[in-house]
């Protein structure tokens, strides 16, 4: 699908001194039409996105026989002060960062003062499209934040600060690959530290408060990006931003003057420990924020591990409808307030886990589409602390050994003993996350 996130579809936003006023740059020129040749061997296929600096197109590299993304500078900005330097800085920043979570650059050229650079083409969408489509579970939030924070730390380690992290600048590729793009506002860390006043630019709601007023000394440049990650995390966990309003000016006023509401007040399934982590990242004073993206992720992961639930969420996967019903009755008797999600196979169970962020998965070993072994294998990569109870009428010691190595927490043979089954469920739900490992697995026969 077209990847609009290679360049934001909204224009870069400039913030003037004093009371912030947002002024758009000149409208983008039409993109080169399909079939246009760039650089002698890149054939334009379609347009991926337009932004304040220019346009990004998808093109075919005829020499290497692969699709690439090409960013071309806005023609009206060619003579603008510092426009070329800013464009070149973005290309150099991408070249300096060697990380799978940051879009890679292949080449830079400036024929007849019309610069462009060639990047990898990431198949997928931007994170904003996913946010617009649905609410994220806490498991999915962590799957986004883990590679994102690693990528941001890699950008900082290369000597740059992104300064415009937002969902539209984060690509989501196959397998939930997270890729940071659009370093059009990136600055060298050394330059940021030496300067007392930068011309602020960014996106309302994600731009750090210290960038909103010109003349503010930037003492902690890396924490500009930590603020944006905090704002993104708030949106992922709650469903809206910490300072959402009906105009850019009101958003900025709220950022400068108002402390955001604790996330757990907006989403009652979140533990209070999340509030301190996220609100700290959104501090107006950068000295109060986490020192790095990695530090933020460590704190938010620990806070979410203390998740509070009004009801237990349990996924039950078995292709036998009678067995599903029996399990449902036993669990309902043991946990009358639990919310049960009953499915017929492993693929449906995996979808339920992604959507519901459950406390326990009960799965049959022998199922069509995705059996209990493969389901356990996938769950251990995506939700390593999620308890998994495998039941079977056909498996034995060899299957149990495989499941044990994969990290399944318990294995019970059919026909199930109601009392033993109930005790196993109670044990798995009461176990601390640290104990949910292969060494803690107990065979139930």
Q: Which structural category do the helix and sheet elements fall into?
A: alpha/beta
Helix amount, in percent? 25-40%
So what's the oligomer here? single chain
Strand order of the largest sheet: 3-4-5-6-8-7
For the CA atoms, what is the radius of gyration?
25 Å
Overall, the morphology is: globular
Q: Which regions contain 5 or more consecutive residues with pLDDT less than 50?
A: 1-28, 194-198, 432-445
Biggest pleated-sheet summary: 6 strands, antiparallel
Note the beta-strand portion. Answer: 15-25%
The chain-level mean pLDDT equals 83
The count of DSSP E runs of length 2 or more, i.e. the number of strands, is: 20
Amino- and carboxy-terminal Cα gap: 50 Å
Secondary structure tally, helices = 14
In short:
The protein has 14 helices and 20 strands.
Q: How would you describe this protein?
A:
By secondary structure, the chain is an alpha/beta fold. 36% of the residues lie in helices and 19% in strands. It has 14 helices and 20 strands. It has helices spanning 83-96, 127-133, 138-157, 189-194, 222-238, 248-257, 263-266, 273-281, 293-304, 321-334, 346-356, 372-382, 397-406, 418-430; strands at residues 13-15, 22-23, 37-38, 42-50, 54-61, 66-73, 105-109, 116-120, 125-126, 160-161, 170-173, 177-180, 187-188, 201-202, 313-317, 339-343, 360-364, 388-392, 410-413, 442-443. Strands 3-4-5-6-8-7 form a six-stranded antiparallel beta sheet, with helices on one face. The protein has a six-stranded parallel beta sheet with strand order 16-15-17-18-19-20, sandwiched between helices. Strands 2-1-14 form a three-stranded antiparallel beta sheet, with no helix packed on it. Helix 3 packs antiparallel against helix 9, helix 5 (222-238) crosses helix 8 (273-281) and helix 11 (346-356) runs parallel beside helix 12.
